Amino acid sequence: MDTDNSVLISGAGIAGPALAFWLARRGFVPTVVERSQAPRIAGHAVDFRGVSREVLRRMDLLPEIERQATHQGDMHYVDARDRSRAVMPANFASGEVEIMRGDLVHILHEATRDRVEYRFGDAIAALDQEADGVAVQFESGESRRFGLVIGADGQHSGVRRLAFGPEQQFLHHLGLYLAVARIPNLLGLHYSGKMFNAPGTILSVYPARQNSEARALFFFHADPLDYDYRDVEAQKRIVADHYEGQGWAVPRILPEMLASEEFYFDSVSQVRMDGWSEGRVALLGDAAFCATPLSGMGSGMAVTGAYVLAQELERAAGDHGAAFARYEARMRPFVGKSQKLAQMATHGYVPTSRLGIGFMHLMNRLVARLPGDMILKPAIEAANSVSLED
Ligand SMILES: Cc1cc2nc3c(=O)[nH]c(=O)nc-3n(C[C@H](O)[C@H](O)[C@H](O)COP(=O)(O)OP(=O)(O)OC[C@H]3O[C@@H](n4cnc5c(N)ncnc54)[C@H](O)[C@@H]3O)c2cc1C
Known about the structure:
Bound molecules: flavin-adenine dinucleotide
Strand content: 25-35%
CATH topology of one domain: FAD/NAD(P)-binding domain
Strand order of the largest sheet: 5-4-13-14-15-12-16
């Protein structure tokens, strides 16, 4: 049985601070190490429904999240002349509560910073599992021992690479890339967005933070690209190359994307693994079970997984193997359903021909007439497929 209750968490995104929150409440001593110099606040809106919203309520964070919620309205599919071709109703995409990812990262950091040690600008360089703990070598040169190590360091997890092997084994590219940039609200949008399709690409623009700014959200088809994860300018160029020459407001938006100081770019890929733990190391959030943004569940799974993992670690009273097994057994149905939803959503999400775009608009006009409950049934089922137990 473990006697060392120190836990090193890699990653200060959504999953890492949420786990630190619960571990600190349940008698553990969490430390969070984050590669960036400060919390990374880029990204677009993330939403919560069902059990994950209940987790936020139990964290006493729901009132603040609701205060900062996006209150996003409908999304209009427009053609090159800015005419509305179809509408996606707000409740289809925004969950029960929706907030900008960066605002949530900030709220989680504020809620934990007094009780949790954060090491920004550092990362784990090496892990050595021993009988009663893990010897950790940091990139900064410092060495320390921890009882357990949790990788909550996203889709390209460093902990996963160190403890389980190269990411190519686990990352499954779904054929799309995603970029998000903070831009001025140059279309004058008011709590509703616009989405423009050209064959093989989508560009959506929607207002954020009470219409004072906007987000440009790019999805485009591409086979796995060879690019430097840290070279943001090169990533912006890749995006621009896929949209150059397009109509609608694209020529006004591309320069804003290129100049944006808040930019996120990644492949739309799922992480699928046979097991999420190896000895004293376990994975959480995108590192273990990234479903892609198209599931609408990534942040919900991250906060729910954090709650379940902390609960099982406390219950197991030092038997980390039993805790990791119970955590995984409880989370698997939620993860499996969410990943399946994302695979279905990805298929046909970005039509590659004009005919396909016309068909999608037609389908969306029909779908918008159906009762919301019917369309949302699979998402609601997935979002409630885990029990919080106490
Ligand atoms: C900047 C950013 C923007 C995002 N924008 C979107 C978006 O627009 N739409 C969307 O659906 N999803 C987005 N995501 C992913 C989304 O946050 C996750 O799908 C989900 O919330 C699960 O969160 P997570 O904490 O597991 O992973 P993440 O939110 O990805 O957090 C992982 C954290 O780990 C850090 N990290 C990475 N490698 C290391 C390392 N080796 N050592 C230490 N720290 C490390 C990262 O800097 C990051 O802070 C974004 C992620 C990031 C990091």
